[in-house]
TrEMBL record:
One of its GO terms (molecular function) is oxidoreductase activity, acting on the CH-NH group of donors, NAD or NADP as acceptor. The lineage of its organism: Bacteria, Fusobacteriati, Fusobacteriota, Fusobacteriia, Fusobacteriales. Belongs to the flavoredoxin family. InterPro entries: Flavin_Rdtase-like_dom (IPR002563), Flavoredoxin (IPR052174), Split_barrel_FMN-bd (IPR012349). Residues 17-155 form the Flavin reductase like domain. It comes from the Bacteria. This is Conserved protein/domain typically associated with flavoprotein oxygenase DIM6/NTAB family. Pfam families: Flavin_Reduct.
């Protein structure tokens, strides 16, 4: 599953993509967790409530994480990490390609792909965070939603 490489690369930026009914969107993420829960592999992504992606996740059933290992998609990561799908159509920025199992697509040109079924979500109880974490990350108190996705498929760009 290439967990170590994924975790070392995600802080440089990855694409979190979701389709909900007819709408599709992607946004850049820099945080995430992979691990084992309920005896299954899980990818947990953190999304602030006002993101357009959050609106789609709330109504969707799955998401994908597409990770570039190099710098080939840096420009796209920059745009998808600063512009909202409310204002722009991100299919004009990146190329969505069909996934193997999820309704949510993946992003062309990445090196590692995870297809995840949403099994649980939880809003962070931020009031209990340490004060330094709150002041550094949540001056607006916009605590993240955590989406726990069971990894139902993962592969590298050469299909392995
Ligand atoms: C490197 C990088 C990492 C980011 N990581 C996250 C993240 O983990 N969670 C989050 O909610 N927003 C994160 N963002 C911000 C969103 O990508 C950004 O607000 C985006 O425009 C949201 O798009 P949307 O409104 O179409 O969902 C990150 C931005 C950058 C540039």
């Amino acid at each position: 599953m290439n967990m170590e490489k994924t975790m070392s690369k995600i802080k440089n930026g990855a694409f979190l993509s979701v389709r909900s009914r007819t709408k599709v969107n992607t946004m850049t993420i820099g945080w995430g967790y992979m691990g084992i829960m309920w005896n299954k592999p899980y990818f947990m992504v953190l999304v602030r409530p006002h993101r357009y992606t959050n609106e789609l996740l709330e109504n969707g059933e799955d998401f994908t994480v597409s990770i570039p290992f190099g710098s080939n998609l840096n420009k796209e990561l920059g745009i998808c990490g600063t512009k909202s799908g409310i204002d722009i159509d991100k299919s004009e920025i990146v190329e969505f390609v069909p996934s193997k199992l999820t309704k949510s697509p993946v992003i062309k040109g990445c090196d590692m792909y995870y297809e995840c079924k949403i099994r649980f979500k939880q809003l962070m109880n931020g009031e209990e965070f340490p004060e330094d974490v709150k002041s550094a990350n949540y001056p607006q108190k916009d605590y993240h939603y955590m989406y726990f996705g069971e990894i139902i498929e993962c592969y590298s760009n050469d299909g392995k």
